[in-house]
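Protocol step 6 of 9: fold each sequence in the batch and record its structure tokens directly after the sequence line. For illustration, a two-sequence batch is reproduced in full.

Sequence one:
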Amino acid sequence: MPDGKGWKGSIGATKLIEKDGAAAIEFNKPGQNVVWLDGFEFSAGTIEFDAKGKSAPPQSSFVGVAFRAVDLATHDAVYFRPFNFRAADPEKKSHAVQYVSEPQWSWQKLRKEKPGQFEKPIEPAPDGDAWFHAKVVVEKRQVKVFVNGATEPSLVVNELSDRPGGSVGLWCNGYGVIANLKIMPNK
């Protein structure tokens, strides 16, 4: 876990904590923060993790993973907006899970130019204040996101990046905790 050894990026935005006897990483700084494995190469495979954010206040908790990461500004990411998991407003609820490919395809650009394609609701909707399990499957040119053991993906997108590989990291904006990270590269 990010203790400065083997990790790069926003180390100062993280704190090592314990979750049910296992190590977890807590983020609690505003702005986009990414920590990634130094010297780790990932092109395709499966990334699983447990995450916890906050349902309130709105816009306070974005939590997920980055892959094919080059640096803080250049990576693909899948992240969750726990404050939208059970939103009463259907439009907000439809913004529960998001794929981005930075720097070319930010969430703002995707929402404006490709509305509804790269962000979706999660059904059944998890509790925005509870732990949830995520599985991100990165295949050639496609990304699928499964939540809490669902057999159907919450999000399926065609990748927007031409990067053949890069590292894997933890991605957060505001408050979030990530534990039990498992990276299974395709062979």
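Sequence two, same batch, same settings:
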Amino acid sequence: MTIANRLYAGFAFIILLLIATTIIGTWQVDEINKTLTRVNEVGSEKQRYAINFRGSVHDRAIALRDLVLTESPAERDEFRALVAELKKNYADAERGMAQITSNPDLVTSKEKQLLERIEDIQQQALATSVEVEQLLASDQRQRAQDYVLRELSPAYAEWLNRINDFIDYEEKNIAAGVDDVLERSNGFTMVMWLVTVLAIGAGAVVSYLIVRRLTHTIGGEPEDAVTMLERIADGDLTVETNSKYQDSMMAQVNRMVRQLQRLVKEVSDSSEQLLNSSNELSETAGNNSQLVIRQQDETTQGAAAINQMSQTVSEVARHTNEAAELADETDRETQSGGEEVESTIRSIESLAHEVENAATVIGHLSDNTEEITKVLEVIEGIADQTNLLALNAAIEAARAGEHGRGFSVVADEVRALANRTQESTKSIQSLIETMKGSAGEAVSVMERGKTQASTSVEQARRAGHSLQTVNDAVKRMTDMNAQIATAAEEQSSVADEINQNFHGITEATEQSAAGSEQVSEASRELNDLAKHLSERVRRFRV
């Protein structure tokens, strides 16, 4: 058990004794107070009222006797007034007694019985008083005197006896209460002495155990321990005590002193090493500060170069976007040219088809001119025969003379018609020959146009394929431009990020420079601290 627990237990036991003493004393004092209250305030009051009863009854008995014996009317009036006053005094005491006995806690059954007996005899005695008054009123003094001796005196004597019984009972109660108070007081005195003895014994035992425990814990006198600790506080680590308690505080202080001696030696050696290390750290911090300054300059130059590269990449990205826009426009124009070439191919193919149809028609026309030539030859033969027949008819008309003149005229007309027919036929034949030559020439031209149209169609198709190739190349170039633009934007973003990183490196370099300065300052402070520590350690004597 610890010293604190021992102290708590000892003082708790003493406090419990004091509490028990207080509780018992309070209870005893309360009981004594109740008893004294019952004796002084209740018992004495009831006894005083009973004494008033007795005085009133006794004096009334004497007054009634004197009232009967006196012959003077004036004295009778005085005795009657005295009887009335005594009667009133009895009534006052009776009201006080009734007020007390109305509380069940303040009256006993015996007291109730005695008061009932007093009340019974009181009624009888008062009846005799009334009878005496009536006899006196009827001027029967002798009978009144006889009645007093025979009835009133015994009644009042019994009344007084019963009142005295009540008074005696109250005196016994008061005496018993006083005896109870004395007994309780004596018992309380014994309890107080007992508790005092127990408290003194418990205090002595607790004090002995605590002193023994403290001596064992400290290992000696507290003054010796204080002196030893003061010397240690002053830096004297050569102090040593001899304690027979190996687990005591002073034995542990000896152990602590030995540990402190080793610790101070180690701290002294470490402070020297710390001083040397702080000097080296200060020199290294100075060199590091110069390196950080040079790194800061180079980082600033790199940040400027990265910033310029970022602007160049942004310019390249802008030109690439313009090239992509031009490639998109070229793609649109190439697609439009391809559509025009397709339209041209379709037009040339349509023209070649028309030329082919025209050549066919012209071929048919040449064939028809051959047929017409044959018909013209037949017509020319007919015209020759008609001319011959007209010549024969003219000959025959000339032979006929006058009779053949009309026929001769017809023959001339027929011959003239035949000549014109021959001339027309020749003209038509000449035209047909010219048409045949023109048709043949047109056919040749149509054949050459057809060939040229086929060649144009093939060239247009090759041009369409070339435009398609150009369109594909433009699309690939557009894709490449988009990729280049994306790459340029990514490169620009990366360049910006690198630029930010360079700024971060610059800030970090600045912070590093500040840190180097702080390290230098800390190394100087560490040097001062090492010197101060070395000086403080030297104050210990080991």
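Proceed to step 7 once all outputs are recorded. Observation for sequence two: The chain has seven helices and no strands.
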